Inverse folding.
């Protein structure tokens, strides 16, 4: 009964449903409430709703998940992709879109990993400093010699 009031207050935009509420909707298979949370919730609610649709979703929730796949928050997009994959869509268009999106997410993760590795790498300039110092000293010595 408390989750019904939560849904009513959520529709009035007064509160966001908690993780327990969404899990209760998942157990009771209240897919319309979960889809509403996926459309109108904040980023955490949208992620939880996409994860819930992964377990209890129907093919009728595919359009909502396709819209959630283009979310600005990467975790929501990934959860929607996982839900689409779990639903086992047989539509060729949906399959190609999810493959492209997974490749896109993989490229972003690889790029972030490369940037992290670059930050961790320490550059040793000491050899260059010594080499340039030696060459500078050599040039200085040659300039001291008289020109013939």
């Amino acid at each position: 009964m408390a989750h019904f009031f939560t849904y009513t207050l959520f529709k009035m935009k007064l509160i966001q449903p908690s993780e327990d509420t969404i899990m209760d909707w998942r157990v009771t298979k209240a897919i319309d409430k979960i889809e509403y949370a996926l459309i109108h919730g904040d980023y955490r609610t949208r992620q939880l709703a996409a994860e819930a649709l992964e377990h209890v979703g129907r093919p009728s929730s595919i359009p909502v998940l396709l819209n959630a796949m283009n979310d600005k928050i990467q975790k929501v997009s990934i959860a929607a992709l996982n839900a689409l994959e779990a639903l086992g869509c047989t539509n060729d268009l949906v399959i190609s879109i999810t493959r492209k999106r997974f490749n896109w997410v993989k490229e972003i993760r690889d790029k972030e990993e490369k940037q992290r590795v670059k930050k961790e790498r320490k550059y040793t300039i000491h050899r260059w400093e010594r080499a340039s110092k030696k060459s500078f000293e050599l040039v200085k010595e040659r300039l001291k010699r008289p020109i013939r």
In short: Helices lie at 2-11, 19-27, 31-40, 43-56, 62-68, 74-87, 92-120, 126-144.
